[in-house]
Design a protein that fits this description.
The complex is a heterotrimer of chains A (379), B (371) and C (538). With 379 residues, chain A is an all-alpha fold. Chain A has 16 helices and 2 strands. In chain C, helix 14 packs across helix 15. Classes of the chains: A mainly alpha (379), B alpha/beta (371), C alpha/beta (538).
Chain lengths: 379, 371, 538
């Protein structure tokens, strides 16, 4: 019994546990604030609205629908995980990949041409999409490495370049572009470029967008985890990120590391595109702003405590409430309210660092109180 | 640390119990008859297609004391549309209004699984359903002879005295194309009768909403091509056209519903001389009434067009009489035109495979799509 | 009669986690006196001063000012009680001028006295609460008065980033005086100053005392302490040890109290004949990347096995750049660097390290350590790629742990946990031990040590000196950069004095006095030097 107690108290003191608890707090505060917003707009339906947000697929009464939309939520989580990892890898190496949206767009071009236009096998399309996104990300990296251009600024600019490139190239390609819908054709499940369902569609009530992608993303999470935990590449990247001067001193090649970090980061952003297009879930539409997922990845990466395993949960959480939030339009809440509320929740979740600080202070105080009490008892 | 943890779980449990208790209490399926609507691209306040459907549904339901609600998919994709429809069904709605061709595939996916729920589609043609799809009994679709609506608008505009005209469609869907080709045919017919040369700039916007790019393009139509009037045919794309018309002292033709009042209010009085209207609101009211009170259900794909030349307001395609602004082309001329179309003196083709055939008086410049 | 104390801190106790930083410490500062607070690094000096200044709240104990109990919970309370503090790292805004920095937070606001009464009142009210227009003229007058009174000459219109560290310190002092503080705390004020500057600073302290200020002076340089203080309070490992009158004690007693045992001030240097050359630098020239000025100008020297060659000089005369040039952190303009007969001038940092350089960098936080890495991870910072520690891109955690544990054991690195502890939480001395251990254990022919004892206390300095001398006995070539004359004289076999990027003197420690060294360092004396010493095989 004592042993169990000891185990728990040692667990509580661990930094990782603190991060988890902090993230949970942030998520909870976000949810409560979201609820308050709903209360202000329509007090009568607020509780039901919040139930929708939290329940997401669970508010369907039909079990088939539940399974189906659980699957859909999972399938939408996968690309966000990839995106969060993209942000995470660059962040650990001391870079901030704000160009993830652009890298995503470039991958979309490759997927559309090879997957929709030429109907190549999915894994070749996937690899090539990741490579091209990776190369595109390295433009930012090269600018940083050779001209010391801030990667945030070049990233944002490249986002727009990529956006217009993608819009321009795709909308002028006849066998890729569905001009009646003003979007690319969707990759259907009979296409070679469709990521196989490996039977998972049957588990999720025939929802074919759930498939091998789920397994792939978990493997990628494991790879990134091992990369930072066990390899010299991860060691170098982290050293560069934490203290560039010390990395220099230790003879770590900064330029090489910038390329590695932006390269991996770009490939992951490309993977995000693969996982949202090659399961037939979305197509590229004519849009006038860079894909939102690149920015959601930032929130998700921070909420996940910048830990590869943490982002699995934070991404799921974000997708879950966004999906749930989109279903409250029939309760007298306009779609805009739904997105305001979910954004509030997501951005509050980004407050992890701040809350951690507060908790830390609280903890010191408690410990001191305990000590003085012990002393008094002795006296 | 422990306290923080306890506080966390405490707050969480309190919060979730509170929300779920009250939340689940208000989920009541109920047995009463309910009508829902799912939007396609734009929202229900697009001053056009979706709004007309929404207003129709809302008006009828209010008058009959029936619950009405609309669902907007969270993003523009098939899966989200299906989800919205599924959600409506799950919440116990009996009739689902599906305005817009984009909902065709979604209806085809959901309808066969829910034979007890009725689907009223608007503006969905056979091509918008998946190939080889046979409509189930619970689907009825109403399409319009947009070609006739376009025809009468174009005919009227030329008769009014315009010779340089433009057409700005939304996305080139079947109905948008029918509008456009009908417009071209109507212009040509009037040009022949008046024996004057007319010029048409014909273009699609690639989207159903206005933005700076569309605005610049339309502004050029007025400035460079000296266009006098633009037929803004596609959802809320009219915003860019109205703005450009206001800047250039030009004119425009609205679409779907009578857009004159809203343009008068938001831009400038008198810009919008007429609108090529589809009786969407009327259709929704009529068909809901038929089904609810008379049990009348016309499954399959139906085309709605002209029914009367003497009382044009009963037609499913028409020009607005309440805000009639044309002087050279009067309501009397309009009734004559309707009569000629109905008795076959004038033929309007709803063919959209090839460009409409025009006489030597008419020059059409097909410009493709802006985006 | 009872003595009047400016400040009394009685029974102050403060605990951080499991570490007792202050355990019932008493400090009594007499009015108009200078109290030196002595103790090794980590003894709790900074903690107790932070408590006095309201940065940290004590767990127990009372603070009295002039006999009355006061409550200090934040720096504003301290300011209200006229307590001022100059921190180890100055709190100045680099881009503001000196004057702006001095008045920052306590601005003299403009008063409108020319206007009619009603407007005057209104304007003054609004200015006080809303506009806050500063009356620079009046502020300047006030500051100038202070400058003249205490003889603290500074140019009020220069920006902080353009003035020297010494002047910045003066600015901090003026800042305290401007706020009319009468209790002044100095946290290791001389750590950043050169010998001459220290003398000037001590004079300032005496002036302040003369004007009736009460001063607490934290230092572990006993020379200064004995020069200027009236009383000395010694604390060790968070415990109060004793308070002694300066006139009644000796340096040896105080250092014994600080360390807890007797300290040998000067280490014994073995007689060693230098052997073959390891490092040879010829005609090295380096430019400042921005101004393109020559920061290192055509210098030549060599280091042989079994000798310690010291680059001495006032900070910023090019010593640091020479080291950067040798280790490759900065690009060299021209010249040759030969290591063990091999030209390494153009190699990358990694290749240079591999060809046989160990480097204890000047700034352990900037270059020496990744503060958020654990002790283990830092212990292999410049050798993780070696076969011993990694294979096929995968780190060998087991051997890193083994190696790290050995390092911790051998160099007595103390932390609150095991080798997984993050280095940021360690004291400066222990951090330095990791670096020194790591570099010595690499066992290279050339050991470069740049200010290896900076900011460390007597006990730790002694240990590091012994380690360096041990390396010399092991026939390593050692290149030392030091700003501290005692250290230079104690350790070196040859002293190369640098002034404005040139070597202006080559001196032998047994033949040179501190004063003469000072003349070379200040540029008053220059020789033409080629500091390459060949071995004469006689």
């Amino acid at each position: 019994m004592n042993k169990i107690k000891m185990f728990f108290s040692s667990l509580l003191k661990k930094d990782a546990t603190k991060t988890v608890i902090t993230s949970l707090w942030c998520a909870l505060i976000g949810l409560i604030l979201g609820f308050i917003i709903l209360l202000f707009i329509n007090a009568k339906e607020a509780a039901y609205g919040m139930t929708s947000v939290l329940g997401n697929y669970l508010i369907f009464t039909n079990p088939q629908d539940r399974l189906n939309y659980f699957g859909q939520t999972l399938a939408k989580t996968a690309p966000l995980i990839a995106m969060s990892l993209s942000i995470l890898v660059s962040y650990k190496a001391g870079l901030f990949n704000l160009g993830a949206s652009g890298q995503y767009s470039i991958a979309v071009i490759v997927i559309s041409f090879l997957g929709i236009g030429l109907n190549w096998p999915w894994w070749i399309v996937m690899i090539l999409a990741m490579i091209s996104a990776s190369v595109f990300a390295m433009i930012s990296g090269a600018l940083k490495a050779y001209f010391n251009v801030n990667e945030v600024i070049s990233g944002i600019m490249l986002n727009w370049i990529a956006l217009y490139l993608t819009n321009g190239i795709l909308s002028n390609s006849t066998n890729v572009w569905d001009s009646a819908h003003s979007e690319t054709y969707t990759i259907s499940n009979s296409s070679n470029a469709f990521i196989p369902s490996i039977g998972l569609d049957k588990v999720f009530a025939g929802n074919a967008i759930v498939g091998l992608g789920m397994v792939l993303i978990l493997i990628v999470v494991a790879i990134i985890f091992i990369l930072f935990k066990k390899t010299t590449i991860g060691y170098e990247l982290k050293a560069t990120g934490l203290n560039g001067d010390a990395a220099d001193y230790a003879g770590i090649n900064k330029i090489k590391n910038i390329f590695i970090a932006t390269g991996i980061s770009g490939a992951l952003a490309g993977l995000a595109a693969v996982l949202s297009l090659q399961n037939g879930f979305t197509a590229w539409k004519l849009v006038s702003t860079p894909p939102e997922i690149g920015f959601q990845g930032i929130s998700s990466a921070f909420l996940g405590g910048l830990h590869p395993i943490g982002v699995i949960f934070s991404s799921y959480f974000i997708v879950h409430i966004t999906e749930g939030g989109s279903m409250i339009t029939d309760l007298g809440f306009s779609p805009e309210v739904a997105s305001i509320m979910t954004s509030v929740i997501i951005y509050l979740s980004g407050f992890v660092v701040f809350v951690k600080e507060v908790m830390h202070k609280h903890e010191i105080k408690n410990e001191l109180n305990k000590l003085t009490r012990e002393k008094e008892n002795k006296v | 640390m422990k306290r923080i943890l306890i506080a966390l779980f405490g707050t969480a449990i309190l919060f979730f119990t509170l929300v779920f208790t009250f939340g689940t209490l208000s989920i009541k399926k109920g047995e009463e008859f309910k009508v829902a609507m799912v939007t396609d691209f734009s929202d229900v306040n697009d001053a056009s297609f979706n709004q007309a459907c929404y207003e129709g549904g809302k008006e009828w339901c209010k008058a009959n004391g029936i619950k009405f609600n609309y669902y907007k998919p969270s993003s523009i994709s098939l899966a989200e549309r299906i989800k919205s429809i599924n959600l409506a069904i799950d919440r116990g709605y009996d009739v689902i209004l599906c305005p817009g061709f984009a909902l065709g595939e979604a209806v085809a996916e959901v309808a066969p699984k829910h034979p007890d729920v009725k689907f009223i589609g608007l503006d969905i043609t056979k091509d918008d359903f998946p190939p080889n799809f046979t409509l189930t009994d619970n689907i009825t679709v109403y399409n319009y002879r947009e070609d006739i609506a376009g025809y009468i608008a174009g005919y009227g505009a030329v008769k009014e005295g315009f010779t340089k005209l433009s057409y700005l469609g939304g996305m080139p869907s079947a109905s948008v194309i029918r509008f456009g080709y009908g417009y071209v045919q109507g212009i040509d017919a009037a040009a022949q009768e008046l024996a004057t040369n007319v010029e048409i700039q014909y273009v699609y916007g690639g989207q159903f909403f206005g933005d700076s790019e569309i605005y610049k393009y339309v502004d050029n139509l007025y400035k460079v091509n000296k266009t006098e009037i633009v037929f803004a045919c596609g959802g809320s794309i009219y915003t860019s056209v109205a703005l450009a018309a206001k800047e250039n002292n030009g004119y425009m033709i609205g679409v779907d519903s009578d857009q004159a009042p809203i343009i008068d209010r938001d831009y400038e009085e008198g810009i919008c001389i007429t609108s090529a209207m589809k009786g969407i609101k009327q259709t929704v009211i009529d068909k809901l009434d038929d089904y609810y009170y008379k049990g009348k259900w016309e499954k399959d794909i139906n085309y709605l067009g002209l029914v009367s030349s003497e009382e044009p307001e009963h037609n499913y395609v028409q020009l607005p009489l309440a805000t009639w602004r044309m002087k050279n082309f009067t309501i009397e001329d309009y009734k004559i035109l309707l009569k000629e179309i109905m008795d076959g003196t004038k033929t309007v083709s709803s063919e959209i495979q090839d460009y409409p055939v025009v006489s030597e008086y008419t020059k059409v410049n097909y410009r493709g799509s802006i985006k | 009669m009872k003595e009047v104390y400016a400040i009394e801190m009685l029974g102050i106790t403060k605990k951080f986690g499991n570490i007792l930083a202050n355990d019932h410490i008493d400090i009594r500062l007499k009015k108009g006196h200078i109290l030196a607070l002595c103790g090794e690094n980590g003894a709790g000096k900074s903690t107790i001063m932070s408590i006095l200044f309201g940065l940290i709240e004590p767990d127990e104990g009372v603070i009295k000012k002039e006999g009355k109990v006061v409550n200090i919970t934040n720096p504003n309370d301290a300011t209200r009680l006229n307590i001022g503090m100059v921190h180890q790292h100055f709190k100045l805004v680099d881009t503001f001028t000196v004057l702006q920095n001095i008045i920052l937070g306590d601005e003299t606001l403009k008063e409108f006295s020319d206007n009619p009464n009603f407007f005057k009142k209104t304007f003054n009210y609004l200015n006080k609460h809303l506009f806050k227009i500063v009356d620079y003229k009046k502020a300047r007058e006030e500051v100038n008065k202070i400058i003249n009174q205490y003889d603290l000459q500074v140019d009020l219109d220069q920006k902080i980033e353009d003035i020297s560290v010494e002047t910045q310190q003066k600015v901090e002092i003026i800042k305290m005086l401007y706020r009319q503080n009468d209790i002044l705390i100095f946290d290791e004020p001389t750590a950043v100053l050169t010998e001459q500057e220290i003398q000037d600073f001590l004079q300032v302290l005496r002036n302040l005392k003369k004007e009736g200020k009460s001063i607490i002076f934290i230092s572990h340089k006993l020379n200064e302490v004995f020069d200027v203080s009236d009383e000395i309070t010694v604390i060790r490992k968070g415990q109060y040890i004793d308070t002694l009158k300066t006139s009644e004690t000796t340096k040896e007693d105080i250092s014994a109290l600080m360390v807890g045992r007797k300290v040998n001030e000067s280490a014994i240097k073995a007689q060693i004949q230098p052997e073959e050359e390891v490092l040879r630098v010829e005609h090295l020239t380096m430019l400042d990347p921005i101004s393109k000025k020559k920061v290192v100008n055509d210098i030549s020297f060599n280091v042989r096995k079994g000798e310690i060659v010291t680059l001495a000089g006032i900070d910023g005369n090019g010593q640091q750049e020479v080291i950067y040039g040798i280790t490759g952190i900065k690009k060299i303009q021209s010249g040759n660097i030969t290591l063990g007969g091999k030209d390494i001038s153009t190699l990358s940092i990694r290749e240079k390290i591999k060809s046989g350089i160990s480097h204890i960098p000047e700034d352990r936080h900037k270059h020496g350590l990744v503060l958020d890495y654990s002790i283990y991870e830092n212990s292999v910072l410049d050798r993780y790629y070696e076969n011993q520690f990694s294979k096929y891109l995968f780190l060998n955690d087991k051997s890193i742990k083994q190696y790290g544990d050995a390092l911790i054991e051998k160099y007595d690195v103390r932390s609150s946990g095991d080798g997984h502890t993050i280095v940021r939480g360690l004291s400066g001395g222990n951090q330095q031990k990791i670096i020194i251990g790591r570099e010595i254990e690499r066992n290279q022919d050339l050991l470069i040590a740049v200010q290896p004892t900076r900011g460390l206390d007597i006990g730790a300095i002694e240990g590091i000196h012994n380690l360096l001398l041990k390396q010399r006995e092991n026939r390593k070539a050692i290149l030392l950069v030091s700003l501290e004359l005692d250290q230079v004289l104690e350790l070196s076999d040859r002293i190369l004095v640098m002034y404005e990027g040139e070597i202006v003197g080559e001196l032998l420690p047994q033949e040179v006095s501190k004063e003469k060294l000072g003349l070379y360092m200040s540029g008053a004396k220059k020789d033409k030097v080629n500091a390459i010493k060949e071995n004469k095989h006689e």
